[in-house]
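BUG: 3D viewer hangs when loading the predicted structure for this chain

Environment: internal workstation, default settings.
Expected: structure renders.
Actual: progress bar stalls at 90%.

Input used:
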Amino acid sequence: LMATAAARACRILIAEDDGDDRRLLADAFRQCGLDCTLEFHGDGESLLAALDSSDAAPDLVLLDLNMPRM
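Structure tokens produced before the viewer hung:
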């Protein structure tokens, strides 16, 4: 991930429906200093639609274990 971030901004898809957990993840990535675009999705269907509609694969996908609509 670090080598990717050095070449271009990385893209991270995050499936998380809890607002507090979203803020925690965003703060953690910001503190790491990585140049990343975080795309939050509130349910699994939304994340799958984002994957299907994109030409490029994300650099990382994080999934909530108790995801609604999956």
